[in-house]
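Thread: quick sanity check before group meeting

JM: Hey all, I'm pulling together slides for Thursday and realized we never actually wrote out the predicted structure for the chain we discussed last week. Dropping the sequence here so it's in one place. If anyone has concerns about the input, flag it before I start.
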Amino acid sequence: MNTLFFEIFSFIFGAIIGSFLNVVILRLPDPEASVVFPGSHCPHCQTPLHWYENIPMVSFLFLRGRCRSCQERISVQYPLVELAMALLSLFLWQRFLLSTAFWVYFVFAAALLVVIVIDLYHQIIPDLITLPGIILGAAASLLLPGLTWQDSLLGLLLGGGIFYLIALGYYLLTKRQGMGGGDIKLLAMIGAFQGWQALPFVIFGSSLLGTIVGVGAMAHQKKGGQTRIPYGPFLAVASLIYLFFDQQIIQGALWYLTRPH
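JM (edit): ok, ran it. Output follows.
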């Protein structure tokens, strides 16, 4: 019974934080906007929302996806982000219970979710997410039993350094910017939170996901090599996969490397 209670609580807590993340996603790319003031309001008619219009996921269904005042459609992004953060919170509780690791990786997962949506919409990764994230990840390594500060420090240095060298090499060869600085800082943040051990899978997994989606985007946009898609979401998704399945990934890699060839 206690387990079910905490699972429900973690899900609801995640949904509430997801509602706040929607505000961050909407306002953070605007340098003149505040994530605190004004309160929640319709982005179309600016009408302030009542409390019953701001219940995560439930209000979207109750309002049938439209603003009560102006009847403009509410983006499906809002309930999807709330649901995603609710599920991430639930999965984190199931793995770490109510521990320091839960809170550290809850913040980490929330940051990655914000990065995914902002990069998809605007093709930018805000420094206000990654730079404090690098510092927080390195500091958290002093508290987490499964991550040493040496692994975290090496992770952030290698994460940022590897992508910096790749970006520099691409620019020198093509005279075009390929990977943005935001991706470099994002991988450094991932390395700080998860250690250098996560980097091979995150780089390989994000490259594989990016290739699959990129081929589809090239076929759809018909721009060939000029097709541009944000890379940050693939890094974030690969990092989240490693967060929940690191042991299985490591065991699978060891099995592959040690099996008879």
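AS: nice. Residues 1-98 form one domain. The CA atoms of residues 159 and 200 lie 10 Å apart.
JM: adding both to the slides.
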